[in-house]
Design a protein that fits this description.
Elements lengths: L1 H12 L4 E13 L11 E12 L6 H5 L4 E11 L7 E13 L2 E12 L18 E14 L4 E13 L10 E12 L21 E14 L10 E16 L2 E12 L14 E12 L2 E10 L10 E11 L5 E10 L2 E12 L1
Antiparallel strand pairs: 1-2, 1-8, 2-3, 3-4, 4-5, 5-6, 6-7, 7-8, 9-10, 9-16, 10-11, 11-12, 12-13, 13-14, 14-15, 15-16
């Protein structure tokens, strides 16, 4: 994740106008399976960000996304009634316009809880097993200019945090959060900016088959006395991607994954594979690709109580029009990240 943040900073900051933001946050924890929270646990905190507006008119993806902002944010949240303690976060962030003063925001990074699970010291915490966790948020932002360089912002977002079973337990935490903030930096040239779906004249839509290979690892989750501390996971996808615009693609794949820690609960599995159908869409931000997709298992597995799951990933394309991508992804169920994986993709 630190490498992804460094790549994001390098991609975003080179010669671009800089904005600084501060905001006060408030909200509540959403109750999930296995969580002792009942939805009445309020949160309050602070959010700091440095953002770089992508306004180079020579780069098509800057124009396509309506001069978006890419940056890095840090935040702190105090959680009342929390046996996991408070949350600290560090994330890469995107902020793009939708229409007028309304925009969207997306962040992915890491979070740390001040009171992670401990068998001997904190038996009440049965759902956050590690200090370090993933942090994902998605929401909407409304801008109200106050001066030429100062903007009042109002944000509403959904936040998720869990560790992908790098440690157990891993039920995860979800939050609803609102933020009132100020952003200082060069004013947008026009609030009529919005994503432009007019392709440049040199682009032609195309399709490519692809192969994805993505290993990972999880801590044994079912047996406290297991003599194997970590089990491997894997994903293999064979699919097809259709590039519709220079910055937008859709695709589908046969998604084949397995979590070998399941074999502690199902030792009679004849084939260590969970096949599923996977559909996704990609957005391209220069060399970065963000992928979001939904999959459905082709058969019922009693260890996968939810038959649908999501995948969220960030990839870096090697070369301007290269066929090789590397990155990190997550297989996500409603209340937790099933596992984190490190991906290689070859587009034929």
């Amino acid at each position: 994740m630190p490498l992804v943040l460094l790549v994001l900073i390098h991609t975003a900051a080179e010669g671009q106008p800089t904005h600084y933001a501060i905001g006060g946050t408030g909200g509540m924890v959403i109750a999930t399976n296995g969580s002792p929270f009942d939805g009445r646990s309020p949160t309050a905190g602070i959010d700091l960000a440095a953002l770089w507006q992508q306004s180079d008119s020579t780069r098509f993806w800057h124009r396509f996304w309506g001069e978006p902002m890419l940056g890095v944010r840090m935040n702190y949240a105090h959680i009342w009634n929390s046996v996991a303690g408070d949350r600290l976060g560090l994330a890469g962030t995107l902020h793009g316009p939708i229409i007028g003063r309304l925009g969207w925001t997306y962040s992915v990074g890491v979070s740390m809880y001040t009171k992670p699970y401990s068998v001997t010291h904190d038996t009440a915490n049965s759902f956050i097993g590690s200090p370090l966790n993933c942090l994902i948020d998605l929401g909407f932002v409304y801008d109200q200019p106050l001066t030429d360089r100062l903007t009042l912002t109002l944000t509403a977002k959904l936040v998720h945090s869990s560790n992908g079973y790098l440690y157990k337990p891993n039920h995860g935490l979800n939050y609803l959060q609102a933020e009132l903030g100020l952003r200082y930096g060069p004013a947008r040239r026009s609030y009529n900016h919005r994503p432009s779906f007019r392709s440049d004249s040199s682009f032609h839509t195309y399709g490519r088959p692809f192969l994805l290979v993505a290993p990972g690892a999880v801590m044994s989750r079912y047996d406290a006395l297991d003599d194997i501390k970590y089990y491997p996971t894997y994903t293999v996808q064979m699919g097809y991607l259709q590039r519709l615009y220079p910055c937008f693609s859709v695709g589908g794949a046969l998604d084949m994954s397995y979590n070998f820690s399941h074999r502690r609960m199902a030792p009679d599995d004849e084939l260590p594979i969970y096949p599923a159908l996977f559909g996704f869409f990609d957005t391209q931000w220069g060399p970065l690709t963000l992928r979001l997709g939904l999959a459905h298992y082709l058969a019922y597995y009693h260890l996968n109580w939810e038959q649908y799951y999501e995948r969220v990933a960030v990839y870096y394309r090697i070369g301007d029009a290269g066929h090789h991508l590397v990155g990190a992804g997550m297989k996500v169920h409603y209340d937790h990240i099933d596992f984190i994986e490190w991906s290689y993709i070859y587009e034929f």
